Amino acid sequence: MSTNTTTMDFFAKNDKISNIWLILTLLISLFGVYGVFNVLINGHDVYGVTRTVPWGILISTYVFFVVSSTGLCLISSMGHVFGIEKYEVIGKRAVILAILTLLCGFGVIAMELGHPFRMMIYNIISPNFESAIWWMGTLYGVYLVFIIIEFYFLMKHNHKGAFYAGLGGFIAGISAHSNLGAVFGLLEARPFWHGPYLPIYFILSALISGTALILIIFNISYGRPSNLPEKAKNALTGLSKLFGLFLGIIIFFDIWKIITSVYGAPPEKYESVMALLTGQLSFNFWFFEVMLGMLIPFFIILFTKGRNLTASLIAAISAVIGIFYMRYDLVIAGQLFPMREPAPGAHVQSALQNGMVTYSPSFSEISIVIGALGFCVFLYLLAEKYLNLSE
Amino acid sequence: MSENSRALKLAEDNQKLANKRKKAKEKWGIVLDTSKCIDCKACTVACKMENYVPVGFYNYRIWVAEDTHYAKYPVISRSFQPSQCQQCENPPCVHVCPTHASYKTADGVVMVDSKKCILCKYCMTACPYDARYESHATEAIDKCTFCYQRREEGKDPACVETCPPKVRVFGDLNDPNSEVSRLLAYNEYTVLKPEKGTKPKLKYIK
Amino acid sequence: MFLLKTKLNRRKFLAYSGGTLAAGAMATKFSTIKAIASEHGKQSKEPGTKTVPSACAICVNKCSLFADVKDGVIHKLNPNHNFFKSRSMLCARGNVGAKVPYAPDRLKKPLIRTGKRGEGKWKEVSWDEAYDYIVENVIKLIDKYDNRSSIAFASTEGLQEEFFRHLTSVVGSTNSVRHPTLCLASNIQGYSSVYGTLPDADIANAKFVVMAGSNRAEAFITPDTIDLAKNRKEQTFVYLDPRATKSAALADKWFPIKPGTDMAVVLAMINVIISEGLYDKEFVDKYTHGFDQLREHVKKNTPEWAEKESEIPADEIRWMARKFAENAPASVWYPGRRSSFTANDVYYRRSCAILNAIVGAWDRKGGLIPKSGISLKSHEFIFPLYDRVKNRIDGGKVNFAADVLPEYIKSNKGMPKDEVAFLSEADGSWVLFRDAILKQKPYPVKGMFIYKQNPVESVPNRAKTLEMLKSMEFICTIDIQMSDTAWYSDVVLPESTYLERWDPAHSLSGVAPVVIFRQPVIEPLFDTKSMKDITVDLTEKFLQKDAFWVDAWEEDKAYMEDYVKTFKGVPMSHIIEHQLSDYPGAYKMLKEKGCFYKTDKIPYGKTLKEGARLKTKTGKIELASVRYPEAGLYALPVYQKPSQPPEGKYRFVVGRHAQFTQANTQNVPYLLEAYGHYENMLWIHPKSALKQGLNDGDYAIVKSSAGEQKVKVHVTEYTRPDTVFYLHGFGRLSKWLTNVYKVGASDAEILEDYAETISGNALLHETFVEIKKA
Fold this sequence. Notes:
heterotrimer; B: alpha+beta; Alpha-Beta Plaits; four-stranded mixed β-sheet; two-stranded antiparallel ribbon; 6 helices; globular; C: alpha/beta; Dimethylsulfoxide Reductase, domain 2; Barwin-like endoglucanases; seven-stranded mixed β-sheet; six-stranded mixed β-sheet; 28 strands
């Protein structure tokens, strides 16, 4: 470890990041302050979540953030953990964004939890080792520590330190993230989620998020694809191809998930999937999830073979938007089949005529989501502007 | 003392009672004969009174749902199904709770320690019976406790006690001489969603 | 006998025997009460938990309960397990009683109106100011019309009602009007004409039960409700109702009978039982009168004829008749409670009573059982004798009586046209009473006291009731909440709720009678008083005004002074002790167990013993009535074909729900939740909905000649296509009923105000409505 680090190692001004963008993203994040204040004053009633759909857009946004974080960490580890030199260039940027997305994710989940501070206490003094949420929370805590250390070593050009921290982050990230999948996958009550599929699927989708976000942030750092240095271009070209591959795999995953949920109409799974295919989530599903999230980016990469970085950037932006909805659809669809038949007297909240229940995010929830997304971009731009993230 | 603080005090008192009854040997259960149910909602209202469940359409611990067998004029056939937390022997809500806020007492009652509840609502997604809700009174998840506050006096839960035709019978499933045990011995019965493997302690006589 | 006649009789009695003596005797009686001394300290406000026995007051059943009070606040009302009549239960309504004293909408101070009637502007006043205002207005009215009967008194049952009736007597009015003619007057009349009494049914032991026009599972939870529910595996239960109610859900067979034709089914069953020789010959010979007439009378009433009337298949009617006879005496055609249905109701009830009689299902296990009571010592009240008093306005010959009959029955010879044949002296007939006030016939009634009742919502044709209130120069309402009637009053006096006051002991008559009482579970939370206190205070105020007593006897005034002194000084607990003084240990049992009874066993066969007489003219079960022909009525029940809704119209029926029977509980949020909706809805059959272009969830205008209401549409298979329904007690006019003010629709608004003229009962199923999309 170097003992006489100069501040120059840490800080460098990037003039490509204009103050206008910083101000704009800060303003967007201020929009979230409305929701935060509203919930602090009026309680969780201001949310659209119900007795039947207790997890709403804040949970799915949390998942979106931590999926992104994990994906960034996993992808970046190719360089400084697994020694693929080509990808070392992405390290710092990927890891700082992994930290920021995780923190924003934590921020969002803190708004969703009724008692975030109580959680910190009782997670420690009264842990339930059977609980996937406990593991997920704890492992993400460990993961955060690892990636912060990793970032520190990367900034210090301490490759050995970065390797160990990165390896720790990689393991903690994979564990935490598959545990997040297990939070859903362990629920016997919810056939759409139940089973080993989600832990695996979550890792796969993290890889997509990670690659897509790296493709985007490098373009932010350098203004446009043509400005990219050669090293970065190489790395991004490689990532584009991987991106296409991951998309291909997730399309394959999704197809089988749908077929197994439709074939023979297995109870509850069928209804949930039909909510995606033809029901209340169908626009989300077909337009955002399938078109923007999978098909458009997949075909862009397929036809450009990943060599056109402008096309890859468009594919990545499209995918990230799609993935946000993918998370939302996954979290909501699993809850749309009520646990009790909405018969008279059953008081099944937000039940529809067709026997399903429904959820729409409230204005407060949406404001918190937009605020958190804006704040995350703001923090990243800030980091990009003032930290030395280039090699 | 406001209604909310009374609710909170009741929740706290029940924790103390559960601690005190750490060596209890009973296994409480309810046997229901729904053929008697007239859907009068005495039980649901009694529950709200006894347990300070706040006013609100979706704030409830117990319910009575209509079970329509056939409904095409002039042939109408329906019955009523009162229910509540199934007090599962294998309770998913207890497994998933990160802080042990949801737990099972020595006598098998699933309860929520409101002080430990972080309101992550994982138990709500885990419960196959939609038996839990977020209480503004205790600022925690709330659910049926078999009126645990009545265990020391040996009184039936409010829903059981107040029921006009006595659809529910409450008692110790471990005691072969209890009425619940005898009802189960001499009647065919079923539980809700047996396929979930939760092993409910609410038994429905056929 | 009318009150005025009684008055003249007593006046004579006093004149000849010496009034002073009589009044003196009363005074002694009061002092006896005073003499019974015991410890009755004030309620402690100390922290801690206590359990207090009392009785519910939310419905007429008055179930005994134990109140759990924690730190001076009611925590829970629990059923009293000693009280066998409730089968150890407390219903949904009984349970919300715990919140009644704390209800934000309750009345907390006496109020005097400052704005226009119904505008809702009030000033809070002290009780003294309110009393002065009332006394001044009462004296003004009596003087103006030279008639104490120019002030009417409306009330409904309850343990404090007798004090309101004392007030009626103090003021000296003959015009009291009570709830029975909106409820069960025709039922009492019909059954009494056969058995001399309205019996209960031994549902716990009955093997075959037919229920028509009584939704036992959804109206009040009575012992019958519970026994019926408990017996579902042992008993055959046939249910006739145009709607598939929750009672229908319990039934073995449900027949959606054509409304108003129930009597055809009963007559056909009697026909089958007699023609097939299934009746109890020995019983009929020994205990009944007029069987041969009956045999002839029902010959034409074949099941095939009844099928055409009722739409119940003839074979099913035969099956019912045979089963009814086969299971006798454990067979019941359920007598029900509310009977304000169609115009031939008294005859219909007679036919039901007769059906039970011919199979011998009377006063035997599983049949109809006469009620009995536990007689309590009364704290007698003798009303003063005034000169300025007139006969009640709806009593005797009423020249517009025929106007209240539905058109189709006006030519029926068995229906009186110029009077109510058997008008109850104390109860009156609400529909005729109101008409008489509006017509000012035979004299003007310009003042009103209303206790606990809410005529605006409970008497059909709300516009007419409002018109009646408008014609009043003075209205005083006593209630615990701002009822719609209170809303249109000049003075509103807040009564203490039943959990904050003492109520006298009361014998609940039934197959096994039991005595209950009330004591304060908590101290009054607000500046409220019991009806007893209000009557006593007002009487005291009247005593200070000489103008009030100009037409009274000195003895009466002295008696009143003693009345005030006694009831001011004697705690209610002493009065209760006095009431129970015939039964050693009874008071102790009441205070400890919450109720007092001699036995919980049903004493079968009291009326079948040698030498026993029923309270009918012949002393027997009168299949053919002796009194009826004397009053110009049919001796035997003659079927009257009801009119049917014309094309495009529907019969509107009223009905009950387990949370709402009368109009007093709709504002309770817990009960609205239990009901499952925050407003009431129009039940309409899918075919009819299609015809009217209505979809589930639409709003519709329901219109009759009385008025119209906007209501949410509930398209349902659970009703006949020619019948529509919505629940009572919504669409209210009082803004202080915050949860139901102008929410949903009022049935009182659209019900046409017909009545029958045998008992004077209102007819709530004779209204046809048009329905249009709103």
